[in-house]
Amino acid sequence: MVSTLADNIPSAADCTIVITGGNSGIGRAAAGVLAGMDARVVLAVRNLDKGRAAAESMRGTVDVRRLDLTDLSSVRAFAEEFTDPIDILINNAGIMVPPLGRTADGFESQLGTNHLGHVALTNLLLPQIRERVVTVSSLGHRSGTIDFDDLNWERKPYKPMAAYGQSKLANLLFTSELQRRLTECSSPVIATAAHPGLAATNLFGRSGRRVRDAISAAAIGLISQSEQHGALPTLCAATANVPGNSYVGPGSFRETRGEPKLVGRSAEAKDPEVARRLWTVSEELTGVGFPQL
After folding, report:
1. Residue 6 counted as domain residue
2. Number of domains making up the chain
3. Sorting pLDDT into bands at 50, 70 and 90, what band is 5?
């Protein structure tokens, strides 16, 4: 293991970096490192008080802006109000295996938060982005499948982990199709993805079942790596010299922990037709399409 996060990434000095959900977990860890490298970091968060508390703990220039990915009107408001150039957008915010819930726009909460909110945000901000879009996925994508007949779990019985896997698979499909479109229009921007391995973050223990959550948290604590080391793949995907559509994760113990490296993904995550179809459906659901660049 490495001594500091900064040992693994190039400098981010003078970059403007927007990171969703940067008030906790690996997002907060990554934001703190980037701010310490003299980047201007913007924490795009739902809870401004928590965002400000996180910002106060960081060294450097850290702004806090309100963004609720579960409400597309909030996503649009953020994009309208934030008009500065952006070097790097990090789509980090996410939820994991909550009870069945719906966003303000009627989407299943994990698909809406982890995927659709970020799709809308990215496409709205893309004309301002100069270097890179990073989207945080998960090992859980390997158990996911895209159910185009019932994306939002309106007919079949709800299974929280299956819904999570679908949303994290969607993150990788989004990244690959975004890169294809960026390449097609000769944009200098690249799209990359990362996953933290098994990191002890606040994503765990949110199922709403107290005993199950306690057991899960205890088990994860025994085998996981810290939030700081879980943030390393995100930092590398955001700043290292990697190709478009690359996927960065921990390099040891079946990608659960260790120093970051380029990693593989499931067969469905590499399917260009599924990626294109999901992009089209996502545009229809959010009402936000790929901009003219």
Report:
1. no
2. 1
3. very low
Task: Give me the domain span that covers residue 212.
Answer: 12-285
158 carries an active-site annotation? no
Quickly count: other Cβ atoms within 10 Å of residue 123's Cβ. 21
Question: If you average pLDDT over residues 66-78, what whole number do you get?
Answer: 98
Question: Is 90 exceeded by the pLDDT of residue 214?
Answer: no
Residue 179's CATH number: 3.40.50.720
pLDDT in tens, 95-152: 999 999 999 999 999 999 999 999 999 999 999 999 999 999 999 999 999 999 999 9
**Cβ contacts of 62-67, under 8 Å, gap ≥ 24:** 62/31, 62/35, 67/20, 67/121
Among 78, 82, 153, 164, the one annotated catalytic: 164
pLDDT confidence band for 6 (50 / 70 / 90)? very low
The pair of structure tokens assigned to 260 is 């970051």
- Residue 112 in any domain: the answer is yes
C-alpha dihedral (5, 67, 292, 15), degrees to nearest 10? -30
Residue 71 has pLDDT above 70, yes or no: yes
Q: CA angle 9-84-130, nearest 5°?
A: 45
Instruction: Give a yes or no: residue 293 inside a domain.
Output: no
Closest CA to 30 of 66, 5, 57, 59: 5
Residue 4 domain flag: no
